[in-house]
Amino acid sequence: MRVFSNAKTLMTLYKDYRTMNDDDLSDFYQSKCDYYQNYVGISLMAGVLASIGFIGADYIINGTVMPTLIPRLSVLIGVIIFFIVTHFLRSRSIVVFMDFFLAHFIVLSLIWSIYHLDDRIHASEGFIIMNIVFLTVGFVAKPSETFISSVVFLVEILVTNNFNHYPSLEIIIANQIPLAIAVFVSHFLLMLIYLDHYRIQQKLELAMVTDPLTQVYNRHLLEKIVTKNALKDISGPVAIAMLDIDYFKQVNDEHGHYTGDLTLLYIGQKLARGTHEDDYVIRYGGEEFVIILKNCDVNNACARMEQFRRDIESATDTPVPFTISVGVSRYTGDFSKSIQNVDNALYKAKNTGRNKVVVV
User: Fold this and answer.
1) DSSP string covering 162-212, please?
2) Is 288 a catalytic residue?
3) Cα(150)–Cα(152) distance, rounded to whole angstroms?
């Protein structure tokens, strides 16, 4: 049955969620926030307009709008604060906090308006409606943040009962508890469903930066790791190597393009296995590969590339015998200049006999 299939899928997603470390979770929740924030922002503005629009109901109850006019319009103060803060501060935690801030500002505006109503019997309906607002905000939040918001909402109701004296407080609380649970469960399920979308998105993004033949990165990766002509997330020395298969055209001409492809696959996989987890192996074009070696000075990089060159030269498991030329340079902080330096080093290696490592 479909319900059992859906339950099985959710359990699989939950197991996946439980295996995520802090960095993975941070990236996941940031992605979730980025994906839903426009919807949440527009929905909050709709909630603000609806809150002000309840002034019509106030007129029916009081016969005038004057007592509740200022309380209803006070929600605009929250809107102004919301736009100012989110304009200058864009981190996920701040954005989510301001979403909940505006939602609770609507609650306080509602409570202030109830205080000025002649008949407060309909307060329970207003609080039930507010759960829709919190359901919306939860699209960008963690389940724990939703739970905290629900507790704060319940405290707001209990505290303000001291001066609003809700005629149906017991009914309000009796409704609010299952509604809060329903909102929390809905957000938890939504989080798992978004995790499925997130994993598919990750696979698509990886496919975009992966060379289909060699299964190492392609040049599109540079768009992600280079910003304003500088490598991102760098600490410590970095070296860059550029590697080229010697006489690769002859491999294709004498042995066929299929063997040439196997040769590219061989060297790509050998590079991937021979580098560290945080290094980048990139098929730069044709038979050229760029290797970005993190936390590695130029001397260490030269030694590693020289050992790799020797391994290739003496390897017995290659599709055909071949050698490589390698250029190595220190990353200067200027990515374009560093690539130019390493390209010059490779050019020198190829023009002074090949099958060697040259350092700039």
Assistant:
1) HHH--TTHHHHHHHHHHHHHHHHHHHHHHHHHHHHHHHHHHHHHHHHTB-T
2) no
3) 5
Q: What does the alpha-carbon distance between residue 24 and residue 29 come to, in Å, rounded to a whole number?
A: 9
Handedness of CA 195, 197, 200, 205 (dihedral sign): negative
pLDDT computed for residue 230 by the predictor: 92
What φ, ψ does residue 117 adopt, rounded to 5°? -90, 140
Q: Report the run of H or E that residue 142 belongs to, with start and end.
A: none
Q: What is the mean pLDDT of each run of 10 residues along the chain (360 residues)?
A: 80 93 94 95 95 93 94 96 94 96 96 93 88 92 93 95 92 92 92 94 92 93 91 90 94 93 95 91 94 94 95 93 95 94 95 92
Q: CA 176, 105, 91 angle in degrees (round to 5)?
A: 105
CA distance 33 to 141: 7
Nearest one of 243, 231, 218 to 345, comparing CA atoms: 243
Catalytic option among 156, 205, 223, 287:
287
Distances (CA, A) of 348 to 139, 227, 273, 325: 56, 29, 27, 9
User: Which residues pair with residue 294 across a beta bridge?
Assistant: 238
User: Which pLDDT value is given to residue 1?
Assistant: 59
Q: What is the CA radius of gyration of the chain?
A: 31
Q: What pLDDT does residue 146 have?
A: 93
